[in-house]
Design a protein that fits this description.
With 757 residues, this protein is α/β, with parallel strands linked by helices. It is built from 26 helices and 15 strands. It comes from Prunus mume.
Length: 757
C-alpha cells in the first residue's frame, strides 16, 4: 500500500519500535499530505507512556528519531507542494482572459458546454442505476461517488493549453477552437467544484461552519471583484508605458496570493481556490500579467510543480489494481471512468459536427478535450487524501490519466497537420497575376522601426488606380502573461476586454500612406498576440485567407545608420524560416540597411530612387522580375536589371529559355531607357560574382534578388560554403554580410512553392 512516505524509513512508530501486533494494527499516526498536517489518534499518549517505561526504548531511540525526522520532512514538503500548486493555479488564472467567453463563437460555446454537461448527466444516471440494482454500496460510498463522477467530467483549461502547446498547434484553427471550448468548460468545472465542496460541507460539517464557509467564499469573490481587481488596474496606471512594474507591487501581490490560499483552506475550500480567483482578477498580458509570469513562471513550472507531481505519484501502488475484482466501490468507479470518458468524447464530436465542422477536425477537437493532466491528478489526489476514494480507485484514476496523456498526443499528431492547408495547389504569386490585377501584399511588423522600410518598399511598387495594391498589415506581438493567443481585426473596431489599445502607431503610419495614394491602395490592419514560435501560423493563415501574392518579412538583424549591426532577434529569424517553409504564396525578406528606413517618404521625396535586380536565373529570380516590372512604370525610379551569365554554356536548357522569356520585357526597345537599363555581365565563378557585387552595392538604394535556395550554378560556385543565413540564399546572404559596407537595402524573394497533385 502506498502511504505517501517520502523515504524508505519505517512507515510508523509501531513498525520501528516493534509494538505488539494488536497495537500495530491500530496505527499511531495518519499523515494527510494534502493538508500538510499529521493527525494524532487518541490512544497515542497511552501507548507512548507504555513505550517509555518499556526496556527496549533506549535501543530503539535512533529509529524513533529517524521516524520523527521523516515525519517533519513530509510535513515541510507537503506544505511546499500545496503552495506550489496554489501558485500554479494563480498563474493559470492570470493567463486566462475571461473576456474570451464574450467573444466565443457558437462552435466553442456548444462544444465547451456539451463536453461537461452531457457526461455529467449520463454519469449520474448510470451511477444511480448501478448502485441501486447491481452493486451493494453503503450510503456514504454512494454520496462520495457523486463527487468522483463529477471530477471525471472535468475539462481543465491548463491541461488543454499545455497539450496544444506541446503539439505546436496552439495558433491553429483547431487550437483556437480547443482553447475557447476549454475555457467555457473550465468555468463550468469550477462552478461544479464549488458546488461539490459546499455539498460536502453540508454533509460532513456543522451548519454553523457550512454557513461560514459559504458566506466567506462568496464574500471573498465580491472583495476580489470590487476591491482587488480595481487595485490591479491602479497598479497598471502607476506603471509608465514600456517600464517594468515595481517589485514592491509584485511582492504585495504574492503575499496576498499565499494569504488567500491559507484563508481558503481555513474556511473549507481547497487551498488553490483563493489564488485561482485572485488570478482571474489580474488583467491578462502586459504590463502586470506579464510581470507576474516573468517573476513566478519559471520557478513554479520547473521547481514547485515537479515536486507536486512527484509527491502525488509516490502515493500510487499499481498492485492495488488486484482489488478491482473484489471491491464494489472500485468496480463502479472503473465503469464510470470509462463511461464518462466515452460520453465526453462523443459529446465533443457531436457538438462541432452540429456546427458544420469537418469530421476529422471534430474528431481532433474531441480527443483534445478528452485528455487529462495535472489538474485531474490534483483532484484525484485530494479525493484520496480526504478518503473520498480508496487506494484501488485512486490507482485506477491515475491509470486513466496516464492512458489519455499518452495516447491523445499520438492520435492528434496522426489526424491533424495544420501545415497541409498551406500546400500550394493554386498559383498565388506575382508572376501569374493578371495584367492590372490588384497586387495583395501581407506586410509583417514587429516594432515601429520596421515601418519606414516596409512603407517605402510598398511605395516603390508604384501603386496606381490602374495597378492597385491591397496592403494587409500584421502587427506581431509576443504573447506574455496570458495563455490564449489573440487575433484582432482592426476593421471590426473591437477592443480587448482590458481596453488596451494595440497597433495605434502602426495604424497612423499606414493610414498616411493610404492618403498619399488615394484610390490606389487599400489597407487592412491586424494584430496577432502569440508565442514567437507559433507566429508563422497567424502569418500563413492570414495570407491564405486573404489570397495574398507576397508576404514581406523584416530581417531579424538591424543595422544602425553607420552600417554596424545594431541588434539581432533569433525569434524573428525562426519565424522567417518557418514562413518560408510553409507559406501559401511568395515570400520576400526585407533586409533594411538603414537607408529605406530613414523616413517614410524616401521614394516620393527623391528625384530618383535607384533599384537593381540581380538576375542569375530560376523561378525565384523570375518572381523578383515580376515585382520589379511594377517599378518600371514609375518615372521617379531608376531600375537596372543586371543579368549574371556564366562564361561557359552549362546553364543552357529549359530554365534558360524561361529566363530569357522573362527578361524580354526589359530588353524590349519600347522600354524607356532613361529609367530602365538592362546589363549582362559574364562571370566565371562565385568569387568573381562577389567582386562584381561589391563594386556596385553603393550605386543603388534597393537591390532585389531571388533566394535560389539549394540551386547550384557556376555564378555562385564556391560561395554557398560561406553562407551564414540560408534563408537569404547565396547572393542575398553575401549582400547582407557585415563585411560589405552596403548602403542599399535588400529584398530577397522566394516564389511560392507549388505542390504537384
Amino acid at each position: 500500500m502506498a502511504t505517501g512516505n517520502l523515504t524508505l524509513a519505517p512507515k510508523n512508530i509501531t513498525e520501528c519500535l516493534d509494538f505488539p501486533a494488536n497495537v500495530h494494527s491500530e496505527g499511531i499516526l495518519n499523515y494527510n499530505t494534502a493538508a500538510g498536517m499529521p493527525h494524532t489518534l487518541p490512544n497515542l499518549e497511552m501507548q507512548m507512556t507504555g513505550l517509555i517505561l518499556g526496556p527496549t526504548f533506549l535501543g530503539k531511540l535512533p529509529m524513533l528519531k529517524q521516524y520523527l525526522f521523516n515525519l517533519q520532512s513530509q510535513e515541510i514538503i507537503g506544505v511546499l507542494t500545496e503552495f506550489g500548486y496554489g501558485l500554479f493555479m494563480f498563474l493559470i488564472g492570470v493567463k486566462m482572459d475571461l473576456g474570451m467567453i464574450m467573444r466565443t463563437g457558437q462552435k466553442a460555446l456548444c462544444t465547451g458546454i456539451a463536453c461537461v454537461v452531457v457526461p455529467l448527466v449520463v454519469g449520474i444516471l448510470v451511477q444511480t442505476q448501478l448502485t441501486s440494482s447491481y452493486f451493494n454500496l453503503t450510503e456514504e460510498e454512494i454520496f462520495k461517488l457523486s463527487f468522483v463522477t463529477a471530477s471525471h467530467c472535468l475539462t481543465p483549461f491548463p491541461v488543454v493549453a499545455c497539450l496544444l502547446e506541446d503539439l505546436k498547434i496552439l495558433n491553429s484553427e483547431i487550437g483556437r477552437l480547443g482553447m475557447s471550448a476549454a475555457l467555457v468548460s473550465d468555468i463550468c468545472s469550477v462552478f461544479l467544484q464549488f458546488v461539490g465542496t459546499i455539498a460536502r460541507m453540508v454533509k460532513q460539517e456543522s451548519s454553523r461552519f457550512t454557513i461560514l464557509g459559504i458566506g466567506s467564499s462568496i464574500g471573498y469573490i465580491i472583495v476580489v471583484a470590487s476591491i482587488l481587481r480595481p487595485a490591479m488596474y491602479w497598479v497598471i496606471r502607476q506603471t509608465p508605458k514600456n517600464r517594468p512594474v515595481k517589485k514592491a507591487y509584485l511582492n504585495i501581490i504574492i503575499v496576498v496570493v499565499l494569504s488567500s490560499g491559507v484563508l481558503s483552506h481555513m474556511y473549507g475550500q481547497s487551498f488553490h481556490f483563493g489564488p485561482f480567483i485572485l488570478g482571474l482578477a489580474v488583467p491578462a498580458g502586459p504590463p502586470l500579467g506579464s510581470a507576474i509570469e516573468a517573476n513566478l513562471g519559471l520557478f513554479v513550472s520547473d521547481v514547485l510543480l515537479p515536486i507536486f507531481v512527484t509527491t502525488c505519484s509516490m502515493r500510487v501502488d499499481f498492485s492495488w489494481l488486484n482489488y478491482f475484482k473484489t471491491d464494489a466501490f472500485t468496480q463502479v468507479n472503473g465503469i464510470l471512468i470509462v463511461l464518462v470518458l466515452v460520453t465526453k468524447f462523443l459529446a465533443s464530436i457531436v457538438a462541432p459536427l452540429y456546427c458544420n465542422l469537418p469530421f476529422s477536425d471534430a474528431l481532433t477537437v474531441a480527443l483534445i478535450l478528452s485528455c487529462k493532466g495535472i489538474v485531474n491528478l490534483a483532484a484525484y489526489t485530494d479525493f484520496r487524501d480526504n478518503q473520498i476514494i480508496n487506494d484501488p480507485s485512486y490507482v485506477l484514476a491515475i491509470t486513466s490519466i496516464l492512458v489519455t496523456a499518452t495516447l491523445v498526443p499520438i492520435a492528434v499528431n496522426f489526424l491533424y497537420d495544420p501545415s497541409r492547408k498551406y500546400a500550394g495547389y493554386q498559383k498565388r504569386n506575382m508572376m501569374h497575376l493578371k495584367p492590372n490585377a490588384e497586387l495583395k501584399i501581407l506586410a509583417c511588423i514587429h516594432r515601429s522601426a520596421n515601418m519606414p522600410a516596409v512603407i517605402n518598399l510598398l511605395d516603390a511598387a508604384c501603386p496606381s488606380k490602374e495597378n492597385p495594391i491591397g496592403v494587409y498589415v500584421l502587427h506581431l506581438i509576443e504573447l506574455v502573461g496570458r495563455a490564449s493567443p489573440i487575433f484582432i481585426s482592426h476593421e471590426l473596431h473591437k477592443k480587448t476586454v482590458s481596453n488596451v489599445s494595440y497597433s495605434d502607431d502602426i495604424l497612423l503610419y499606414f493610414n498616411q500612406f493610404v492618403r498619399e495614394n488615394l484610390g490606389a491602395v487599400s489597407l487592412s490592419l491586424f494584430t496577432a498576440i502569440s508565442a514567437p514560435k507559433y507566429m508563422y501560423e497567424d502569418t500563413c493563415h492570414l495570407a491564405l485567407d486573404k489570397l495574398v501574392s507576397l508576404i514581406v518579412l523584416p530581417f531579424h538583424r538591424r543595422w544602425s545608420t553607420d552600417g554596424s549591426v545594431e541588434s539581432e532577434d533569433i525569434n524573428i529569424r525562426t519565424l522567417n524560416c518557418s514562413v518560408l517553409d510553409r507559406a501559401p504564396c511568395s515570400v520576400g525578406i526585407l533586409v533594411d540597411r538603414s537607408h529605406l528606413g530613414r523616413s517614410t517618404s524616401t521614394v516620393s521625396s527623391q528625384s530618383s530612387f535607384s533599384v537593381a535586380i540581380i538576375f542569375l536565373g530560376g523561378k525565384d529570380d523570375r518572381e523578383a522580375l515580376a515585382f520589379s516590372k511594377r517599378m518600371a512604370k514609375d518615372s521617379t525610379i531608376s531600375l537596372t536589371v543586371i543579368r549574371l551569365v556564366p562564361r561557359t554554356n552549362e546553364a543552357v536548357g529549359s530554365d534558360w529559355d524561361l529566363d530569357t522569356e522573362g527578361l524580354k520585357y526589359f530588353r524590349d526597345d519600347d522600354v524607356d531607357e532613361r529609367f530602365v537599363m538592362y546589363l549582362e555581365e559574364a562571370v566565371k565563378d562565385g568569387p568573381q560574382t562577389a567582386l562584381l557585387l561589391r563594386s556596385i552595392v553603393d550605386q543603388y538604394d534597393l537591390i532585389i534578388v531571388g533566394r535560389r535556395y539549394n540551386v547550384q550554378s557556376p555564378q555562385t560556385a564556391g560561395l554557398s560554403e560561406w553562407t551564414e543565413f540560408p534563408e537569404l540564399g547565396t547572393v542575398g546572404d553575401l549582400l547582407a554580410s557585415p563585411d560589405i559596407n552596403c548602403r542599399a537595402s535588400i529584398l530577397v524573394v522566394q516564389q511560392q512553392r507549388m505542390v504537384t497533385k
